[in-house]
């Protein structure tokens, strides 16, 4: 399973679960038909620690 498949499986039992994908691959590698579901964010490598912090805060505040 890839990360997106794991996230989708986890959200079947916990639909409110928030997910942050961190990837070194192109964004489309984790997109499902070109989009992310509500409560999902993506952060591509390389990134700065403040960028990670912002993404986590965005997910918490959703």
TrEMBL record:
SUPFAM superfamilies (alphabetical): CheY-like (SSF52172)
InterPro entries: CheY-like_superfamily, Sig_transdc_resp-reg_receiver
Biological processes, Gene Ontology terms: phosphorelay signal transduction system
PROSITE patterns, alphabetized: RESPONSE_REGULATORY (PS50110)
All residue ranges annotated as the Response regulatory domain in the record: 1-60
Gene3D superfamilies reported in the protein's UniProt record: 3.40.50.2300
Protein name: Response regulatory domain-containing protein
């Amino acid at each position: 399973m890839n990360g997106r498949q794991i996230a989708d499986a986890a959200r079947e039992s916990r639909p409110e679960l928030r997910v942050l994908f961190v990837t070194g691959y192109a964004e489309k590698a984790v997109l499902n038909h070109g989009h992310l579901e509500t409560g999902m964010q993506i952060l591509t490598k390389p990134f700065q620690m403040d960028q990670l912090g912002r993404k986590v805060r965005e997910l918490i505040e959703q």
